[in-house]
Design goal:
Layout lengths: L1 H7 L4 H12 L9 H7 L1
Length: 41
Amino acid sequence: MWWERCSREGIKGADLVGARQALRHAKGAVPLVREDVDAAA
């Protein structure tokens, strides 16, 4: 998942949120689902 890649690349905190926002608004983006939030937490 996207947060696993961010973790591997050392992206955390506010940068993680920024990365998710960029992915959310990218062309062809897939909406975030509740299971993504639960798994990341």
